[in-house]
Amino acid sequence: MVRTRCCEKTGLKKGTWTPEEDLKLKAYITRYGSWNWRQLPKFAGLSRCGKSCRLRWMNYLRPNLKRGNFSKDEEGLIVKLHESLGNRWSAIAAQLPGRTDNEIKNHWHGYLKKQQSQQISVSQGEKSSSNDGSKCKITRGKKLEIEINPPVNPPTHEILESSQFSPPPFSGESSCFAENDVSPEILSGSFWTEPFLADKYDTAVPLDTGFFPPYSPFVGEEFLCSSGFYDEFDNVLIW
DNA sequence: AAGGCGCGCAACCGCATGCTA
DNA sequence: ATAGCATGCGGTTGCGCGCCT
To answer: What does the record give under GO molecular function (predicted)?
Structure first.
């Protein structure tokens, strides 16, 4: 048997996600969860490979994600964790609620670049006392403090402890139901034979309408009501 | 004002791993 | 025991935007 690739090259869209695609994916996962990433795009009406959908959800659409700059605490924690864990970004991300491994990885690479440029400028400064440091260009001044104050001994305990005992963030692992949680009858039943086709439902449906497919196993409070999920959608789900 | 350059971010790719039939 | 599948993970790439010259 030939192993089928995740991303068959035929007809699958690549590149930046459009708002419409985001809506479809978000609406589908909100409603049904990520029961099978490979099949999901087909049912959600997306011309994407499952891998791409998963990545988009995990790194961008997932609720409770922090956006924006890393705080000093977070940066310090990343440095500290990287010392002990190395490039295990997912493990590092697990200690930083709301941050993704991709985000941390990207941030680290930027951090590394700055470190290197700083070292170069320092070594140049040692060779030439007339060095004014202007070669170490900080074009987007917001990160300058990091270079000046390397994050040594950051106050990480609070973060570590809170992340350990606080409720887990809404993530693919914790809040999207596991496949194991779904009974075989549901997975093999007629419900799954009918695609979700989010673009069929292009109107906003208030959540309290109770409109759910008869066999959806994902309607329970556990899935829909955890983590203040509704707020992210202005109390409305887009079908 | 315009082009070049660098950074940050999103996304892709390939490999690893665990599970299942 | 093994092959295939699904998913996770880390490395890498490409694009857009803002700053600099």
So the answer is: DNA binding
Cα distance between residue A185 and residue A40, in whole Å = 18
The Cα–Cα gap between A176 and A32 comes to 9
- pLDDT at site A13: 84
Tell me: pLDDT of A70 over 70.
yes
**Rounded to 10 degrees, what is the CA torsion of A128, A132, A138, A139?**
-120
- Each residue of A185-219: pLDDT tens digit? 333 334 444 455 544 444 333 333 333 333 343 43
**Within 22-81 of chain A, which residues have Cβ less than 7 Å from strand B?**
48, 51-52, 55-56, 59-60, 69
What pLDDT is attached to residue A121?
A: 61
* Gap from A139 CA to B11 C1', Å: 25
Q: In chain A, which residues from 93 to 122 place their CB closer than 7 Å to nucleic acid strand B? A: 102-103, 105-107, 109-110, 113-114, 117
A155-CA/C7-C1' distance, Å: 34
Tell me how crowded residue A125 is: count the other CB atoms within 10 A of its CB. 15
Rounded distance in angstroms from the CA atom of residue A59 to the C1' atom of nucleotide B20: 28
- What's the CA gap between A197 and A195, in Å, rounded? 5
Protein A5 CA to nucleic acid C6 C1', in Å?
A: 11
Give the global pTM.
0.64
**CA gap A52, A16 in Å, rounded:** 10
Segment A74-92, tens digit of pLDDT: 888 888 888 888 888 988 9
